[in-house]
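If you are new to this repository, start here. Below is one unmodified record pulled from the training split, so you can see the exact layout before writing a loader.
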Amino acid sequence: MKSVCIVYSENAGQFESYRIELENITNRLAKIMDARVERVELEALEKVSLAKYDAVFVMGGDGSVGRTLGKVSTQMRRIPVGIIPAGTGNIFAECLGLMKEDRANLIQYALDVIEAKRIATVDIGMANGTAFVIDVGLGPFATAITKPDTDEKFHQGMLSYVKPLFSALRKRPYRFRITADGESFEITASAIFVSNPPEIGIGQSADLSGIQDGMLDLCIMQPEEIDDYFRIAKKYGAWFIAGVSLDDTPYKVMKVKEVEIEALAPAGKVSPMTRMLDLEELPLEEKRNGNSRELKTMRDGDPFEFTPLRVSVLPGAVDVFVPEEALVSTS
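And here is the target side for that same chain:
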């Protein structure tokens, strides 16, 4: 008899909403796949051999999906992966076309997609040897999204990020050295993201092209006026809260295959928002290593390592179940 597994995370932002569904999901997968279904908690995933499974399913948000796809990508044979959205942002699921307006039936829809057994091959990113599906980032804006805890994400959803993002406005920008595809330059920024889908997934609903192009987006945020902050907030709020994509791009974007980012030192001036509104400055998450400095980073919305970051793309790394509309839109 075939064997499959479902990976789930009790720390996923919306897991408590779906906890009672886990048994029903397990039973439905057993019927769809005509297989025995084993459950694997995310924190135990690294100790589990996936070679014995005919398919792997993951129920969670982008952090859970990234860790699962990273593990699957190391296997000697191709193992298809089904994604059941149960996180706060679910950006990767959005790119695959799994996020419908009828959010009450997301699980049912994801299972229907799995049952149809349509497969697409997609890219993932690697940061310091660790896989990611959405992005890695550093700087005050980037690490702010790691601050909400599970309870805050469950009760407030995407709004749980508002308070830490506002606090990030009061943190000093940083000086970075970036080497992108062999070309080096230094910049001062409040955030740098390296993303697998274009622009961290904004506007990528049911669009596989951005995660099948073998490229990454290097996004650099350098707000200098209050209007710059509002443009950034409007861009992200419109998409992640209202689902509307705006044409305005209030940051620099470069297409890259490989990039290394080093943290040099805090900027010589406080952040523009701190200066303009006469706010008290907040400290950065950094540490000293001899004469050098290291800055805390973020991976798929979770806290990650300190700098430097060495990031690359793994083209066509994994196979995932997708709806027909995603295949049609990229054909």
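Two things worth knowing about this chain: The longest strand covers residues 309-321. The chain has two domains: 2-123+317-329, 135-313.
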